């Protein structure tokens, strides 16, 4: 029951340190949620993109060989485009009006991703121009892309002390290593289940933690 419920003005109410602390913590949580990326959404979207995209590529190369490879490739491309669109929209939301060190750190992470993927595409293009077999080119594109994602996740998470994202980055690198060992076409299955599954598991974990936190508050 608050001071207003007792018919007293807020100014006349005695100071309640517990109520003030709870109010400060609620306001802090609201502010942090507004400024933080929607990791639950982002992990879910990228998990679905990996599961769908690499799953299509694997099925086309194994049980659906009558399907033209271009169709599976378009499916993978659209899945990545949707995930990138959601990520970009969330990044704009987070950094709208944000200034200072936080904005600079977020921009640097974005540049790290961009530089890494540009180098991946250049490397794969050189392999293709050099006459590397198609499975080698395809596996290089997939494995190098996950290498960039895993490393940037781990480095940025270590800097921000985010254990879940750090662990997810390590998991992605582990899935990438297994994919390289099994080779094509089963590498696509590993990336779909282990890569996509890792993102989806992280999304579910955050959803459960949020539900538990809401139940406690």
TrEMBL record:
<keyword id="KW-0812">Transmembrane</keyword>
<keyword id="KW-1133">Transmembrane helix</keyword>
<protein>
    <submittedName>
        <fullName>Uncharacterized protein</fullName>
    </submittedName>
</protein>
<feature type="transmembrane region" description="Helical">
    <location>
        <begin position="109"/>
        <end position="128"/>
    </location>
</feature>
<keyword id="KW-0472">Membrane</keyword>
<feature type="transmembrane region" description="Helical">
    <location>
        <begin position="166"/>
        <end position="182"/>
    </location>
</feature>
<feature type="transmembrane region" description="Helical">
    <location>
        <begin position="41"/>
        <end position="60"/>
    </location>
</feature>
<feature type="transmembrane region" description="Helical">
    <location>
        <begin position="140"/>
        <end position="159"/>
    </location>
</feature>
<feature type="transmembrane region" description="Helical">
    <location>
        <begin position="66"/>
        <end position="88"/>
    </location>
</feature>
<feature type="transmembrane region" description="Helical">
    <location>
        <begin position="188"/>
        <end position="208"/>
    </location>
</feature>
């Amino acid at each position: 029951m608050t001071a207003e419920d007792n018919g007293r003005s807020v100014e006349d109410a005695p100071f309640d340190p517990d109520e003030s602390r709870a109010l400060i913590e609620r306001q802090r949580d609201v502010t942090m949620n507004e400024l933080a990326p929607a990791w639950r959404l982002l992990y879910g979207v990228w998990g679905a993109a990996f599961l769908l995209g690499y799953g299509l590529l694997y099925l086309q190369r194994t049980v659906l060989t009558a399907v033209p490879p271009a169709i599976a490739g378009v499916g993978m491309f659209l899945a990545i485009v949707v995930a990138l669109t959601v990520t970009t929209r969330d990044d704009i939301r987070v950094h709208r009006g944000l200034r200072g060190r936080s904005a600079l750190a977020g921009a640097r992470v974005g540049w790290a991703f961009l530089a890494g993927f540009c180098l991946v595409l250049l490397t794969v293009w050189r392999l293709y121009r050099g006459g590397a077999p198609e499975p080698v080119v395809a596996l290089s594109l997939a494995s190098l892309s996950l290498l960039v994602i895993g490393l940037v996740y781990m480095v940025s998470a270590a800097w921000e002390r985010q254990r879940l994202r750090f662990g997810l980055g390590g998991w992605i690198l582990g899935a990438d290593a297994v994919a390289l060992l099994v080779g094509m076409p089963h590498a696509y299955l590993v990336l779909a289940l282990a890569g996509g599954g890792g993102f989806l598991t992280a999304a579910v974990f955050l959803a459960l933690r949020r539900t538990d936190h809401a139940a406690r508050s």
